[in-house]
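Example (one chain per record):
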Amino acid sequence: MLLSLHIRDFAIIDDLEVELRPGMTALTGETGAGKSILLDALGLLLGDRADAASVRHGAERAEISASFDTSGITAASDWLAEQAMTLDGECQLRRVIAGEGRSRAYINGSAVPVQSLRELGEYLVDIHGQHEHQSLMKRDLQRQLLDNHGGHQPLLAQLAGLHSDWKQTRQAIEAIIGSDQDKTSRLEFLRFQLQELDALAPLAGEVEQLHEEHARLSNAGELLSTCGTHLERLYDDDRSAQALLSQALADLEPLTAIDASLKEAGELINSALIQLEEGVDQLRSYQDRLELDPQRLQWVEERLDALHQVARKHRIEAETLHTFQTGLIDELEQLEQADQQLQKLEQQLQELENGYAKVVRKLHTRRVKTAAQLSQRVTEAMQTLGMQGGQFEVGVRDNPSAALSAQGQDTIEFLVSANPGQPLRPLAKVASGGELSRISLAIQVIAAADTRIPTLIFDEVDSGVGGAVAETVGRQLQALGAHHQVLCVTHLPQVASHAHQHLQVAKVTDGQSTRTQIRALTDADRTQEIARMLGGRKITDSTLQHAQEMLTTAARPQDERPAASRGKTARSSNQGQKTRVTS
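Predicted structure:
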């Protein structure tokens, strides 16, 4: 649930904070006062695209933050836990937009990419726009609405996995079949290449080892000479380093009895003598292993030349010859076993198609059942929205010949009969703009009632309706408020009067700058606002009386309302509770 929203230097808002409660909240005000700006700001917190125009004129940056209670939202809590951003059942979202258009996003104080706001926002808020009916005529959206209403996501996820595996298997089969035409010539070419490589038999790491050996053999004379010279100087000569160190050690040893401080020097010279002897042993061992071998040197040179020559032919580095040979062997084996592999893939493809068909049948059955329920509920809603005798039906037609897709093989279409006696026809061909708006509203309210998302926002979805129909819309939104937090931007007093909380948005100016402010209305203020919405600029006593009557009726339980006003209602109004709003 949305607990609070704080906006600073955004559009025409300088500094605004609003705290929200459960139930239905109405946002009203004159056209252009900034009601939709509040929703735009919330949209940015949920990952909408930002630009420099969002920043208030003269400000360096815009900042929007909101606090949500996630203690009862399992999906959101799980997402936050996966990202290691859990904060005791609360979630803080923040978005900062710089003057040049760049933005930064934060969740519970941690910097995140905007995509993370979108992912988390899908669990927190569901926004229904006033132009949503325009996309209602698209078949894809109709299918999504039906599947969302029926909770078909697990089946769709299973179907998508099968379809993905099926596509990959088909591509593998096509690759094998497509290569059949060139398979014979490719096999001959591979065998020819491998015949030469097998004869050469390059080893892994061989080239590097040969280069090291070649360097040693080609410089063996110099290495032997240098080793011999220094063995004499270090050990074999009468005046060698070993002899001098031994003599120094022998001379110092009796002197340590006279001056003990010489003992440390003697120990260091003895250590040097030990290391010298170890070094001489290694040097002599190296000299013994080293020999002049012109024949071995010639063989190494010829071997390197052969390896580099074949590598140049294949346009690769000599060091990669062994890996190249291994790759050719693998390809040859795959081509030689292509028939067996093809048979295996075709069997796998058949199994995937059988599994796909089984899930498609199950999804079709679920869709038909859901379509009947949704059709009945929307038809009932149409009767209360000024379309008496109208009928709505979700057509679900199985199309086994259709290409396999991740969404199944059903053709789904919304059908409507706006007036009694008229046949059902596709929604786009029958409904007028006003009828389409009301049908869309009915579907949105029904879909919203089924969602687990706690906060639902309706942005002037009641446009195009009025009178008793508008009162029905208000009752339906009020009923939604019993189980969800509902924010409704509206121009209709019939809708606003049903809210549990009423916020008024106004634009104020001092002649030099303009800003938006918002305030929670008291009972008396609310009567004035409803009267303004009813009667325009001039508010008469009768208008005030009518406004008070609307508020009183909307606050009554269902069984206490006059017959003309009875309908499905939510709890009584919470308008007496305090709401802190600053601007």
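Caption: The chain has a mean pLDDT of 83.
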